[in-house]
Amino acid sequence: MNIFPPVQMQSPKVYPGMEEMKCPSPNLARMHLIKGKDAIDRYLATHIKGLSKQEAAAYRNSYKKNICIDMLRQGYHKSFAELFTLIEKWNALRKASGPGSAIWLEKSLEEQPDKLDQLHYFLTRAEAAQRSEYYEEMYSNQLSLAQCFNKPEDRWLRNYFYEQCFKTAQLIKIDGGKKEAEAHSNMGLVYEEQGQFLKAMEHYEAFYQLTVGRVWKDDTGQTFNSLACEHLWRIYTLLADKMLENKEHQQAIRTLIKALEMAKEAGNRKMEGEAAYCLGLAYHLAGEEKTAISKLMMCLEISKVLGDFVGLGRAYQAIAQVLVSKDEVDEAIIYLEKFMNIIKRVQLSQSLVDACTFLGNIYNQRGNYSKACEYFNQAFSAANALSDLALVNETKVFCGIGKAHNMMMKVNSHTEAADSVSIKYLLDWKENRSDMCSDPSTTENSDSVVLPETNNDL
């Protein structure tokens, strides 16, 4: 007994009877096949409760294709074209990078549904706003897209939408230029990350000009004007570094003076100290030692006020370097010893290595080799504490130089004496190769010379 009632099957009227079936031409057969498929779809949609043709297609198609179809159905042709352009751009970047590159191992944009969802949502909203000439809303949607792609692998997408924001911001005339200022800031960041510092500077300067006298603030509560000053301080410093590498000292000094002015205008004392320090070093490289010391002293005073021991120590060290170049070594040593005291207070091992090496070199150049060895040994101990093999090896070399000079003085004194005791001492020392030479007077009444333990480390 059947539980379910029989299903009344009805064939579509368009289907021919069996007696009419003949072997048609291939093209005609294909046409009948397609018509038959459409008829079956219509029949299933009408008589069976289930998936519609569109719903079935949604399961068969890729996620990208469904999103594209949805955009076109809703009339967002510009969004559809933009999405396709971005997918092609990603594929071109991947192809250009080649196998084995980081981008080659990543999933393509069309294989990442979350990103496609974001693009679909904000692109269509931006296009709708553009049609109504609501350019502020269009800008907001483009900016949201840029902020969605902040990961390193998505930077190209973020930069693309920052460029779109910049174009849209030019069309907004009712906010006093706030969106345009923000767009200049973002474009400056894009060019700075790409190492195009001159282009970044142009955008940051435009950002600054638009914010003068304004009280606009970002999401953190910082004013746009102080943010513009910070951007300009940073980009001027980066540009000056490039100029100093190219020995363009005067141009670098002019750029760093502008950086110092921006730091002062921003009201950021730490930035001001950094700018003064960089300017002092630039004057030192240009041979203007007096001006260099005055700028470094400014950095020193700011660091004292802020309680910035790192900045304080660095200023002491820089002043000492300038004084050494002026042959004012005794005064330089005073500043370096102050530097050493600060380093020990805040336990900066790397700075301790630098300071000890610097002091060791000063004493080594002045012929005080025992004192040089003392500081080189301190540098070696500090390098060991850092577990930096390259630094340990470097300080080993300095220790070897100091010990060799210290030993050579005594060897030379015995050589110059040229008496029998000194000659016997030198011959025994050469045979044993000890580190330190004892006073030959201790060997005058003995048949053999007693030497300290041999150390073959160096």
Automatic annotation (TrEMBL):
Gene Ontology terms describing biological process: cilium movement; cilium organization
Any Gene Ontology CC annotation: sperm flagellum
Domain of life from the UniProt record: Eukaryota
Keyword terms of this UniProt record: Cytoplasm, Repeat, TPR repeat
Polar residues composition-biased segments: 439-458
Function: Axonemal protein which is implicated in axonemal and/or peri-axonemal structure assembly and regulates flagellum assembly and beating and therefore sperm motility.
Name of the protein described by the UniProt record: Tetratricopeptide repeat protein 29
UniProt source species: Salvator merianae
